[in-house]
Specification:
Elements: E1 4-5, H1 15-26, E2 32-33, E3 40-44, E4 48-52, E5 66-70, H2 72-82, E6 87-90, E7 92-93, H3 97-108, E8 117-118, E9 125-129, E10 138-142, H4 158-162, E11 165-171, H5 172-176, H6 179-194, E12 198-202, H7 216-224, E13 229-233, H8 234-241, H9 259-272, E14 278-288, E15 291-300, E16 303-306, E17 310-312, H10 321-335, H11 339-353, H12 365-372
Parallel strand pairs: 1-2, 3-6, 3-11, 4-9, 7-8, 11-12, 12-13, 13-14
Antiparallel strand pairs: 4-5, 9-10, 14-15, 15-16, 15-17
Length: 382
């Protein structure tokens, strides 16, 4: 039996009640007292300096670079905070002006920074050439020896960080950088599980980052079994699980896709992670750098929920689209009781990120819901 110990004056259908409902489900219907309610989401990863060529120039052409900050788990944290959620970001930054600037940037988005570690000598950097027409985007990482990459088990006080947290979110990028960071991920996941947190995991496969002698499958498969929530593209799931993906081929908003094939795909994934309660899948088809189609799936309790196809015919920046999906789904898990609403909201938020330059998805809940209110032709549904 789930008992709501809330203030008598509290109105119905508040966000607090939705949090309670969600956690009652995750804890198998256990009683959750208001004083014990934990809402904070903790994300862990590396924030980097992003240097982007302007006007679709190649690096060898450009004499100036646009400066931003970005990193998968920081992008997720900013999405959550932008929607009104409570979130804390864990990383390690150098004790210099760049590290101080990163903290100021995070704080400007209402991200908790109280447990960020300071040490090391440099901030990780990546250089970005944006895609143009049929030319793919290009990323050059310069993150070897960064402050974050030097993290080892025992350096982060996870028990202190998790004591007032509900969800821990991490991604495969964290474990790809060094063997030490893979061990830190295992340490964090184990402690979070022991302390009763929900584990959110983004596969986030980057082939070029796995350079220390182990494959992504060797490292990530044992870790993914602790997940309560998983996210990835169909290709990432196929890579990690060995299950062939159906292949998303929609070319416009009116196209249909093989829902039955994707249900079988998700069922097969679920058999490999039987304790995972929510399996989210992003579907994307890229016709050109500016024209993508997008849809989303959520498999939970043996049931598949799927969205319509979104046609994005003027992509501004597709970096951080998956992070936008993760941030939105973590918000939606608390904000909505209905699985269809959760996957619809997460997918629409991800679609909107394609229209925003930089790593962050700086959209409001009302903008996401406004997109959902439109039909396939862009008309407001009445």
């Amino acid at each position: 039996m789930c008992i709501f110990a809330v203030r008598m004056s509290q109105r119905k259908n508040t966000l607090a009640e939705r949090f309670l409902s969600f956690f009652c489900f995750l804890t198998g219907g256990k009683f959750i007292n208001e004083s014990d309610m934990k809402k904070k989401i903790v994300t862990f990863g590396e924030i980097m300096l992003r240097l982007t060529t302007p006007d679709n120039l190649r690096l060898q052409q450009s004499r100036e670079l646009l400066v931003n900050y970005g990193g998968s788990e920081a992008n997720v944290a900013i999405s959550i905070a932008n929607f009104g959620g409570e979130v804390e970001y864990i990383t390690r930054l150098p004790d210099n002006a760049l590290g101080e600037s990163c903290i100021a940037e995070l704080r400007s988005h209402n991200i908790g920074t109280g447990h960020i570690l300071i040490g090391g000598k440099r901030l990780g950097t990546y250089y970005m050439e944006k895609a143009a027409a049929m030319r793919n985007s290009k990323v050059i990482y310069d993150r070897d020896g960064s402050a974050f990459s030097e993290l080892k088990p025992g350096m982060v006080n996870w028990r202190e960080i998790f004591k007032d947290a509900a969800i821990f979110h991490w991604s495969g990028i964290d474990a790809a950088l060094t063997p030490g960071l893979a061990e830190v991920c295992r340490e964090a996941v184990d402690i979070a599980k022991e302390m009763g947190l929900t584990i959110s995991y983004d596969i986030n496969y980057r082939k070029n980052l796995w350079n220390y002698g182990k494959t992504a499958q060797e490292v990530l498969r044992p870790l993914m079994t602790s997940s309560d929530i998983m996210f990835g593209s169909e290709g990432e799931y196929a890579m990690l699980t060995g299950i062939p993906a159906p292949g998303f081929k929609a070319r416009n908003a009116g196209d249909k896709y093989d829902v039955a094939a994707y249900e079988a795909f998700c069922q097969a994934i679920s058999r490999q992670v039987p304790d995972c309660k929510y399996i989210y899948v992003a579907l994307r088809n890229v016709m050109s750098s500016e024209h993508h189609t997008f849809a989303g799936l959520l498999y939970s309790n043996g049931t598949l929920k799927h969205t319509r196809v979104f046609d994005i015919d003027n992509v501004v920046d597709c970096v951080g689209v998956g992070d936008a999906f993760c941030g939105a789904l973590l918000y939606a898990q608390h904000a909505y009781d209905d699985d269809q609403k959760r996957v619809d909201f997460s997918t629409a938020a991800s679609v909107l990120k394609n229209t925003i330059a930089g790593d962050y998805n700086i959209v409001k809940v009302s903008e996401v819901e406004g997109l959902l209110a439109k039909d396939e032709n862009g008309e407001v549904a009445r």
